[in-house]
Structure formats: structure tokens, C-alpha cells
Amino acid sequence: MKKKCVVIGSGLGGLTSGLILSRNGYDVTVLEQGAQVGGCLQCFTRHGVKFETGMHFIGSADEGQLLYRFLRYFGVLDDIQLSRLDPTGYDVVSLAGQQFRLANGRQRFIETLAADFPKERDALNRYFDLVEQLAQASSLRSLCNAETDVSPLMTAYQLRSINEVLDEIVPDPMLRNVLVGNLPLYSAERDKTPFAIHAFITNFYNQSAFRIVGGSDAIARSLVRSLRESGAEVLCRQQVRKVVCNDRQAIGVETDRFYPADLVISDVHPARLVELCQTPLLRPAYRRRIASLPETVGCFTVYLRFKPQTVPYMNHNFYGYRQSSPWDCERYTEATWPKSYLYMHICSEPHQQYATGAVILAYMQFAEVERWKGTRIGHRGDDYERMKRERAERLIAAVVKDHPVLADGIAGYDTSTPLTYLDYTGTEAGSIYGIAKDVALGPAARVHHRTKIPNVLLTGQNVNSHGILGVIVGTIVTCSELLTSERIMEQIRNTENGGK
């Protein structure tokens, strides 16, 4: 008889974990509390314009590159269409009005920045050497057999902060700032965020960078189709209220009904899982540790709708900073907000000429919206709506200053806050990327995929790291607990060779 696996949550980690296990003989049921699957793959439409909520662009998706190989394994490639970002500058970093381009490929990346920093060519080569060494040191990212994603080199740079390492190898302070100009992609903090995270993100997007035409929810739909073809169930509007345990392990989960389980995989924030597990199997020390882990900052988002054929499509991402440093933008006052923003266009069709919409993201601390916690979306009151309008107007004004074409091109906008993230994804304090890594905490800041309940495992962005690649690597770590990584890697290679 097949072992029953219940997956709580239908984010990327839940869907991919469920698919691997379903293909390997488990009877899988994925339970989603909302009306739509996908977690941060979800999209929504306002006035005919479709917006991303989390997966705004991806990297390493050219044929043969790592994400391409994973997407092929999961059967996603035939169901999505990719639009390449500008290889000569997929990211543009603006520091106090001066713009710099981050280009695809090691040589082009170095040459582009060396044009602005001609004395720093050697430093750029040293920097890129280290980035590549760390990427290659990750056994799972190189699709080698390994039960964990840890090596001595990686461990060393998980315990050293980004700014500490860059100070050591890059003499020019402005170049150091440019190299971390895309830090909103991983919510980096000075003296805290490990250099290893920066290296993985840099390597991931340096290989290639794409937007998903029509929205990343196509990935979620593809995964759900594959799950159902493999015999799994994916059920929406099934809010899990309790993980039911006996004196040894979990025996199932409760929504409006009971789902028996030999195995439970949780794709919700670890703090939410702890709340669902009212059992002495989770000791007070474990509960306190999960509750004490730091969270990444939240964000305020404006979803812009454009008048038809007024705003040329921008084939790169734009990071705008008031000051010459990207650091410490999460530390702001009422007067200084927003210190920075990330501005991206939505790709609604191939070979797009004019943009239909865009998103603007700026940091927002949960404390600013905490007084409305517990209220319902759309029913938070006039003060909340007034605050959002004021913030949106300030953020739009900052972007228009850098992009004057927007002045007459905006047809309307919608907004979201950390409360929106909390309500839709369950992430603690509405954080962008869940639990934050901190070099000062070392391994204590990491969430292990095993819990103290022997047959309850974690998946998702809080295991390994966030983002599409980080989550998939975390999925393999979690599923390797049951299948071994050798077996999963062999299946990935067989898929590339035309097998199943």
C-alpha cells in the first residue's frame, strides 16, 4: 500500500515536493487554504492588467543551465514562455543619480563595470572567481549526489557577511556598492547577510535572466497538472487547522475533515506549523527557537497600470537609491522613506513594445501596519487606506523622478503591504523572504528540514534559501530525506536523456 503524504500549502516548495514524492510511489494530497494555488507564484488581474506577486523574474534558464534542467525535470518548460532581459544590463543600479549596468556572463559583467571602474579590473576578477567557486562548491546546485548542500568553503562564507568580504577584495567603495545594488532581491543587511547568499544570487542571474510571459502562475498550473497526472490530489479552500499527532508522530491533518497521513510536509512558515502542532513532541525549546528567529523585512508594493502605448517596455530591472549606498534602506524614518525602490515592468506578451503595467517595491517594516493585524483585506478602515495612498504617491513620485515618461502614462494603481503578504502567504510579519540568515547566529539561524516530529518535514523558502532556485534546492534536500539525493539526481539526468 502506498504511503500517504499530506502537503500543507501549495507554494513552489509544496508543489515540487509533492510532485517528486508522487512520482516515487507516495499517495500525495496537497492542501491549499486559499482559492488559488502557487504561493508567491500567484498572479492577479486588475482592470485587465495581470501582475506578479513574487516571482518577477528568473535566472539560469538557458538550455543546459541549472534552472532549465530543474524546470525540464518538473515538466514545466513546455508550459511557459520566457522573455529574455537585456544581456548587456538585466539589472540597472542607480546610486544618487549615477547608473551602472549588471550584464550577463562573466566577461561581459566584468568589462561593463570595468568601463566605469578601470582601476578595478583585477578586483572584479577576484570577486567573480569567488562567486564561481562558491556556486561550484554547492553539490546540489551542480547536480552532484549529496544529502546536504554544505561544503567547507560554503560554510566559511555562510559565516562571513557580504560587506566584510567585499571590503577585503574590492578596494573601491562605490564599486562595492554597485555589486550589492540588487540586494532587495535577498533583503540583505549590513554585517548580517552571509556572502554565500550574495554569491548564489549573483551567479544565478549572471548566467541568464528572463521574465515569464503572461505571469509565473503558469509554473504553478503546470506543476498542478503534473501532480494530477501522477495521481496526486491538489485541493483549494482547505485550511489546515491542526496537525494531529499520537505520542510518537503525526497521523494526519484536520481541515473541515480529517486527512490521514504517514508523512506530513509543511510548505508554510515554520511559525505557522508550530501553531498547528499542539503536541508535546515539539518541546518548548524548539518552539522558542522558531519564534525567536529573525525575519526579513516586509515591503510596500505599488502595482501600476499604464495608458495604452504610452510607456515603452523596459527590458531590465531598475534599483533606485537616493544615496550612494544601497545599505540600510530598511532603516528609515517617516521623513526619509523611501530610501530605495525596485521598479520592474510586467511582461504580458512576447517581443513587447509597450508596457501594460509595472510593480514598484520599497521596504516597509511590519510595525507600521501591525495595528491593523487581524483585520480583513478590504475592511481595514479609512486610516489604512489613507496611509497606503500617501505611501503610494510618495513612491510613485520617486520613480517618476528617475523615469519622467511615467508622468503622463499612469492610468491607475493598486497597493499591498506586509499585511497582504501575511494574509496571502502566512509568512511571519509579512516578511518578503521569510526567516533571515545572520552570520552572528551561524547555524542557529538556519531552519532544518526535519522537525522534532519524526514524520513531519519542512519545505519552501525557509529551508535552504528563497527564490525559485533556492526553493527547488530545498525541495531536493527535503525529498532526499525519503528518497536519497542520488535517486533524485539520477531521475533529473534521465529526464535530460529522454527518460522518465
Structural class: alpha/beta
Mean pLDDT figure: 92
Portion of residues within helices: 25-40%
Provide the spatial order of strands within the biggest beta sheet: 8-7-16-17-18-15-19
Task: Give the radius of gyration.
Answer: 22 Å
Total E-strand runs: 20
Contiguous helical run count: 15
Beta-strand percentage?
15-25%
Q: Report on the biggest sheet.
A: 7 strands, mixed
Description of the structure:
The chain is an alpha/beta fold. It contains 15 helices and 20 strands. The protein has helices at residues 12-23, 66-73, 106-116, 121-137, 152-158, 162-169, 173-179, 195-207, 217-229, 270-276, 284-292, 382-402, 418-425, 467-483, 485-496; strands spanning 4-8, 27-31, 43-46, 49-52, 58-59, 82-84, 91-95, 98-102, 209-212, 233-235, 242-245, 250-254, 258-260, 263-266, 298-306, 317-321, 340-345, 357-364, 410-416, 456-458. A seven-stranded mixed sheet has the order 8-7-16-17-18-15-19, with helices on both faces. Strands 10-2-1-14-20 form a five-stranded parallel sheet. It is globular, with a radius of gyration of 22 Å. The model has no long low-confidence stretch (mean pLDDT 92).
